[in-house]
Amino acid sequence: MNIVRPLFSLALTGCFAIATMPALAQTEPQGFYVTAYAQASRLSSTSFDEVGNANLGAGLKAQFDAGLGLGGDFGFNYGNGWAAEFEWNWRRHDLKSLSGVGSAAVTEGDFASNILFLNGLRRFVRPDSGWVPYVGVGVGWVQEIDFDLNTGATERAWSKQGDIGVQLIGGAEYALSDTWRLTADVRVLRLGNQQLSAEEGVTGRLAKPGYNPLSVQIGLRRMF
Asked: Which residues form the Outer membrane protein beta-barrel domain (predicted)?
C-alpha cells in the first residue's frame, strides 16, 4: 500500500492550517541569516526496471542504508513571523540490497541528489522563550538526481536534471546568543517516481525508481 501521497497531502494541509492560525507576539528583529546543517536521511525501498544493456532486467527492488545529507541556506527574517530562504541540499543513500533477475551482478551503489530550494517559513515567536517553532514549505529544482549500480570496478550511472520537488518542514530554533541559533527540524521531500537516463557505462534508462526521503537535521545559524 502506498501511503506516501496521502501522508504528504495530510502534512501539507496541516502546515497551512498551522501557519494561518493567529499567534501572539510575532515581532522580532528583521535581518538576514545563514545556516549550515547536517542531516540523517531515510529513503524507503523502491521497485523499478532497467531498460538497456546493463542486463539487470525488470522487477528490481532496492533497499538503502541510512543516508547522510549536508546543506545550507541564506534567508531573510521579515520580523513579523515570516521568513524566506534559498537552500542548497545534497544527500546520498548507499545501496543496502538489490533483488531481481540480474541483481547478483551489482556489488555496490547509491541513490543521491543535489537540489536547490526556495522555502517559505512561518515562525511562532514568543518573547518569554528562547525557542521559536516553525513550519514551512519549499519548492525545489533538481540540479541532479543520480542512481549508481556498480559491478566491481565497472561504474554504471543513470541520472536526471531539472525536475521539480516539494518539501515540508517542521522544527524549532533555539537562541544560543544574540547572533547564534541552533536549529533542528524534520523535512519530508517528495520527488516521486523518476525516469533516469543512462549517464555512464550503460545505455537506456531506469524506469520509475521512487525518491521520497525523510530527513532529520541539525544546523547552526548566524543572524545578521
From this structure: 14-193
* CATH number belonging to the domain at 4-223, selected among 3.40.50.1820, 2.40.160.20, 3.90.220.20, 1.10.730.10: 2.40.160.20
Q: Where are the domains of the chain?
A: 4-223
DSSP 3-state assignment of 218? strand
pLDDT tens, N- to C-terminus, the chain (224 residues): 444 454 455 445 545 544 454 544 467 889 999 999 999 999 999 999 999 999 999 999 999 999 999 999 999 999 999 999 999 999 999 999 999 988 888 999 999 999 999 999 999 998 778 899 999 999 999 999 999 999 888 899 999 999 999 999 999 999 999 999 999 999 999 999 999 999 999 999 999 999 999 999 999 999 99
Q: Among candidates 111, 97, 93, which has minimal Cα distance to 39?
A: 93
Which of the 8 DSSP states describes residue 65?
Answer: P
The cell 519549499 sits on which residue?
138
Q: Are 71 and 89 in contact, with CB atoms under 8 Å apart?
A: yes
State the Cα–Cα distance between residues 161 and 88, nearest whole angstrom: 15
Q: What are phi and psi of 11, to 5 degrees?
A: -65, -40
C-alpha cell at 40: 540523517
Alpha carbons within 13 angstroms on the beta-carbon side of residue 174 total 7
- The secondary structure of 82-141 as a DSSP string is EEEEEEEEEEEEEEEEEESTTGGG--EEEEEEEEEEEEEEEE---TT-SEEEEEEEEEEE
